[in-house]
Design brief:
The chain is an alpha/beta fold. Helix content is 29%, strand content 25%. The strands form three sheets. It has a seven-stranded mixed sheet with strand order 5-4-1-2-3-17-16. The protein has a five-stranded mixed sheet with strand order 6-10-7-8-9. Strand 16 and strand 17 form a beta hairpin. Helix 1 crosses helix 11 and helix 8 packs antiparallel against helix 9. The radius of gyration is 22 Å and the shape is globular.
Length: 373
């Protein structure tokens, strides 16, 4: 009988409850135990894990590495999927290997390039991947120049932090004066240009923003699986246009994703996003981690999380081609259990276990994760 695999996910996204489900329903029929840690006691990933623990707050990256090494050694972790402090962790890959843990994460060089969006755009442009025009701005005057140049070219200007993830801080510049129109319905991403300039001029310190044209749909997120030999094992695009989602194997999206994943050491799972600039697909962003929607590839008959764990364990799954492309779908929210307000203790005061089994989520995400892959 093959040994049980112990996998740890640290402070990850709520959607990764489906990542965990796919690991357990792996096509190798291998027993998998999942350890999860998080800073939020109500994170559903804690309830979905076999063992779970609240993470200490306020640790520096170096201190977090020590915490992570201790977790791996004490809990016999075979594969660690780091999100929080990924850069600091991958710099100590040899230390994790010494305690028997494989890191399911890119090289230090790969994570460093894509921590900063301006650096990333410069790097990928140097290898021939198209990027949109962009300006790095830190002051109100620099912002005004960038916005005026974009608007002169017929574009809407938008900005986002040069370092950040998940769309945090993304805004679209508008010249329309603030009015009751902006107070109707739900809040949107639009912000008045004069208000932004005023806020920058009153700020105590400079910002670090990337300003660029607002790119058009479709948005295509290419989920990649790359081996430690820098060779791609899988690339499947997930398309987004409005509420509609779908899948693609069009080389317009896959070819530049392959160049990035193989050329920059994005080992194991990464997610590379594109949008349209005129008639040309251009890079939007690169995530050096599994995407929250990765499990949706199960609608194409692919279990990417398990294939990545196999690679990390040295069990090469080979090139993965989806046997079919799933039909278009939409994503809707649904309930998942969380732990009791007073955690159930076991072994140690800060270790908690899921008190109830996962319930079915009434969503396409849940249906995708439930496929027997």
């Amino acid at each position: 009988m093959r040994s049980r695999v112990r996998v740890w996910l640290n402070r990850t996204y709520a959607e990764n409850v489906f990542f965990m489900d796919q690991l357990r329903r792996n096509p190798s029929d291998r027993a998998v135990d999942i350890h999860a840690t998080h800073g939020d006691a109500d994170s559903p990933v804690l309830a979905a894990a076999d063992t779970a623990e609240l993470e200490p707050e306020g640790l520096s990256p170096a201190a977090y590495v020590e915490y992570a090494l201790d977790q791996c050694q004490r809990r016999g972790i075979d594969v660690f999927v780091p999100r929080l402090h990924q850069s600091a962790i991958v710099a100590h890959r040899a230390d994790f290997e010494a305690v028997g843990t494989a890191l399911l994460a890119p090289t230090p060089e790969g994570t460093a390039v894509f921590e900063d969006k301006a650096t990333a755009y410069e790097a990928v442009a140097s290898v021939g991947v198209p990027v949109p025009p962009w300006w790095r701005v830190r002051t109100a005057d620099e912002l005004a120049v960038a916005v005026e140049e974009l608007e002169a070219g017929g574009h809407k200007a938008c900005f986002k932090p040069a370092a950040g993830a998940g769309g945090v801080g993304f805004r679209v510049i508008t010249r329309a004066p603030f009015s009751l129109f902006h107070l109707n319905g739900f809040p949107g991403p639009y912000v008045q240009f004069d208000l932004v300039l005023d806020a920058l001029r009153r700020a105590d310190q400079p910002v670090d923003w990337l300003v660029m044209p607002r790119l058009e749909e479709p948005e295509v997120s290419v989920d990649c699986l790359t081996g430690p030999d820098n060779l791609l094992r899988m690339a499947v695009g997930r398309t987004k246009k409005g509420r509609r989602r779908g899948f693609t194997l069009d080389e317009r999206w896959l070819k530049p994703a392959r160049i990035i994943a193989e050329g920059f050491g994005l080992h194991y799972l990464s997610n590379i996003q594109f949008r349209m600039y005129g008639d040309e697909p251009v890079l939007l962003d690169v995530n050096t981690r599994p995407a929250g929607g990765l499990h949706q590839l199960s609608l194409c008959g692919v279990n990417a999380p398990w294939a990545a764990v196999q690679l990390a364990l040295g069990e090469d799954p080979g090139v993965i081609e989806p046997p079919f492309l799933g039909q278009d779908y939409a994503v809707v929210a649904g309930p998942k259990p969380v732990l009791p307000s007073v955690p159930v203790a076991r072994e140690e005061a800060n270790v908690v276990l899921a008190p109830t089994p996962a319930v079915e989520v009434e969503s396409v995400d849940a249906a995708a994760a439930a496929l027997p892959l």
